[in-house]
Amino acid sequence: MSRATVRERLRYWFDNIMAKGTGALIGWLALLSVTLILAVSGLVMWLTPDEVNAHEGWTGVLWMTLMRALSPGKIASDTGTAPFLGLMLIASLGGIFIVSILVGVLSTGLKGKLEELRKGRSRIIESGHTVILGWSEQVFTIVSELVKAHASQRGSVIAILADMDKPAMEDAIRTRVGDTGRTRLVCRTGRPTEPADLDLMNLDAARSVVVLSPQSEEPDAHVIKTLLALAKRAGDHPPVVAAIAASANMAAARLAGGPGVHLVDSVDTISRLIVQSSRQSGMSVVCMDLLNFDGGEIYLRSDPALAGRPYGETLGAYASATVIGLRTAEGVMLNPPMDTLLGTSDQIIVIAQDDSLIRLAGDAVAIDEEHIRDHERARPGPGRTLLLGWNGRAAQIVRYLDGYVPAGSVLDVASDHPGAGDGLVGLHNLTISVKDCETTDRYALEALGVGLYQHVIVLSDDRHHPHHADTRTLMTLLQLRDMQATLGERYSIVSEMHDENNRALAEVTEADDIVISDTVVGLLLAQLAESPHLSEVFGYLFDSRGSEIYPRPADDYVAGGAPVAFPTVVEAARRRGETAIGYRLAAGSGEAPHFGVVLNPDRSRLVALGSGDSVIVLAER
Q: Per the record's keyword annotation, is Transmembrane included, yes or no (predicted)?
């Protein structure tokens, strides 16, 4: 191999200097400037000694040379011998060269620094903040809900780390969420799966961490890798909340996250909600009302004064809160047996507007015995359900539906999805048939004889982008509505959608229930981010075991049209072994945002519940 030439060595040396960054370049320019000034000053003192005396000695010469180097225009006013003027010209030309390079270096360095700041790579210095790792459609729901939860808090902070441009994240949230009030938003660009990037978020001082599933082919792999990165970090970290898209990955996620992680099974939660909504109209609205921060929220309360009393007697114990269950050493129970005695360490689970408003009632509210009804509820017989569309969670929805319906029920699946009907094994109560059908085609829907069914479930097609899938769902709903109006048929319709913004459009279709899957998961993550200890409560609420939420005919509890206070409704439900938590007025079922649902009603206010209205209860199936 031939030896490197002097030119190659100089070029290699120069490349290494350039690679060291702006600081190194400025240092070399400063050294070059000092060398130039000293060299020119030395030549002036050697070649033109008379000029040295004229400029107050060698210090004057140094200052004069420095000024010519920094401000070449000063040479125009110089006088003296030709050698002196020539040396000053050299100093000025060298100064032009050095200053030009310095301006370019500073401009490039400043631009790079601004670009780095624009990307958001500085470590945040906050405490008590909520950290969101990753980016998906759920981030807008979570941020919006956390802003509501922190509306009365000054200086609250939400910090987001995602592999996106910082201004792009801020613009998207500003557009979708709007004004964040007292809550400050801090965005950082980085990969949540990299421990070095996680250090930017000051996790040791955070209040909670939310891990989002990205919109990719394998979202759970990203979540599990992020949980591993969190677990690998040295030191403590706050409670972690994460959503898992596939139930089969829950065990791996628990192992990766450790005991401090609270996992939300997205598919399982949405599947159960769709099934419950198909059987009980209004179920999704009630759950959304419980999950958001607009109205009543769930709290755990310890009141030693109630120890030793049966659960049934505690239902009227609070003046402005509704009791829904207990948390004991054995775990959470919603609507436990009415004779369950409260232990001294047990906590009461209540719904209240704010924890500061939870207080024990003074005198017991009078019960209107005259208007309490005790109708025997007839158990429904076998029914027919039509499932329009198919996606990755359809098989799980069918299995849950099989556990709800009585034996002999029929389910017809109509879809052009190639996987329609796959995985439907081991069913006990349902008889399944699969039909090929384009669910947006009016004639294909009419050929199904939709009027023969009591319930219709419309699923989102996962072969399409979420926005396009929602558009197809809207088309199907519009066709069904028009068929109902034209043919005079009546059946309940429950649909699944992705984007909350499409709910307003879907209201035109007058569907009985619309389950916004991304919104429900986002609301649940926001609730757990604020109160991780509620994980057991919501897990019980969406579990098919034990009591669940049911909107049931108000006529079964109180006399129709008679004004009664809510404690009377609570007592009527208690006698059935149920816990009443609110009601739904049919007159307001089309009015957003609560759609007629009233949870934790005012105890002193009289309400007349008539035909079509519902009492919302926690009860066994």
A: yes
